[in-house]
Amino acid sequence: MRKTAPLTTFAVLALTGLLSTTSDSIAIASEAAPQESDFLTRVQRLTFDGRRAGEGYFSPDGTKLVFQSERDETNPFYQIYLMDLMTGETKRISPGTGKTTCAFIRPGSGDILFGSTHLDPQSEKYQREELEFRASGKERRYSWDYDPAMDIWVADGETGALTRVTEATGYDAEASYSPDGEWIVFSSMRDAYERELTDEETKILDVNTSYFGELYIMRADGSAKRRLTNVPGYDGGPFFSTDGQRIVWRRFDTDGLTADVYTMKTDGTDEKRITDFGSLSWAPYEHPSGDYIFFASNKLGFSNFEIFIVDTEGTKEPVRVTFTDKFDGLPVPSPDGKTLMWTSSRHGEGGQLYRGVWNHEAALAALAASPVRGAEEAAQ
């Protein structure tokens, strides 16, 4: 299945400099608090089709975008799509059956990594049931289910042929490649299915499967799997740092109510807590400069997610980036660091992908002016 967005939309992106731009320095007045326009300009919506789309990631050369979207009339769940950012040509990468999530493009090859349940024989049944539920007019709050049939797959960048790289029972997803393309870091709940659980753990599994989420690393072919974390609560959403020496991720508390950003070495040592924000802070991604980390948080209200930045050592208080109603999250900078892409529902219902010119100098200035983390509490 192939769909093509209007060429004019993408021509505008190219002509206005969203695809390749020199920095537009916008000075932040010393007396005024920063606003969204200080950090982001020329904001454009990238996706329009389907009920929702989001969690987009750039190819290493910045010319393509892989993302997930609900746009198939026969399947209400996310599927994975690849978009050419110059022409708008979009094609589906995943098989079209079951649920998918968390795609990422491998540096050096164009292979595409993603999680999928398409081998589950119940997939089509679940699709029909979900379609029937939506047709009934009933509504429920959106939530992610950690399907134990979810495994990690790789689609060949040239042929599209699929290779399965995880096979354990339990949710395997949220995977990404190292900068050299040799390693994959991912989140898995396999631990809940590979050992005998205590009575208390069995009760937890029934109501909060994500409690058992831990981080693992493996080679790009799926070999040499090794567990990196071993802490109660959900560890997930991992990415390698720009230099490939560390991993950034988010860790939920045991109740799943708050989360913070952490980093560690790729061998699982030297854990550092980067935020202590008293809220749900997740979806961290490092800027290519290595100077700071983007993340999303509902610090300002339970359902009001906004994008923030924090220095990579976590010494300063986070700085707010987006100031628009509804959801703004899953921030990802382009490989050259000059644009930022994120998922937003600022247009209405259902998330879609947006991109804007990113002001790196303004970000550095705002972080420099931000107080030391915990300074206010210490002064009280």
Written description of the protein model:
By secondary structure, this protein is of the alpha+beta class. It contains seven helices and 25 strands. It has helices at 7-15, 36-39, 123-135, 191-194, 199-207, 360-369, 375-379, and strands at 2-4, 40-45, 52-58, 64-70, 79-84, 89-92, 100-105, 112-116, 151-155, 162-164, 172-177, 183-188, 214-219, 226-227, 235-240, 246-252, 259-265, 272-273, 281-286, 292-297, 306-311, 319-320, 328-333, 339-344, 352-358. It has a five-stranded antiparallel sheet, with no helix packed on it. Strands 2-25-24-23 form a four-stranded antiparallel sheet. A hairpin with a 5-residue loop joins strand 19 and strand 20 (292-297). The protein is globular and about 55 Å long. The model is unreliable at 1-31 (pLDDT under 50).
Brief description of this entry?
The protein has helices at residues 7-15, 36-39, 123-135, 191-194, 199-207, 360-369, 375-379; strands at 2-4, 40-45, 52-58, 64-70, 79-84, 89-92, 100-105, 112-116, 151-155, 162-164, 172-177, 183-188, 214-219, 226-227, 235-240, 246-252, 259-265, 272-273, 281-286, 292-297, 306-311, 319-320, 328-333, 339-344, 352-358.
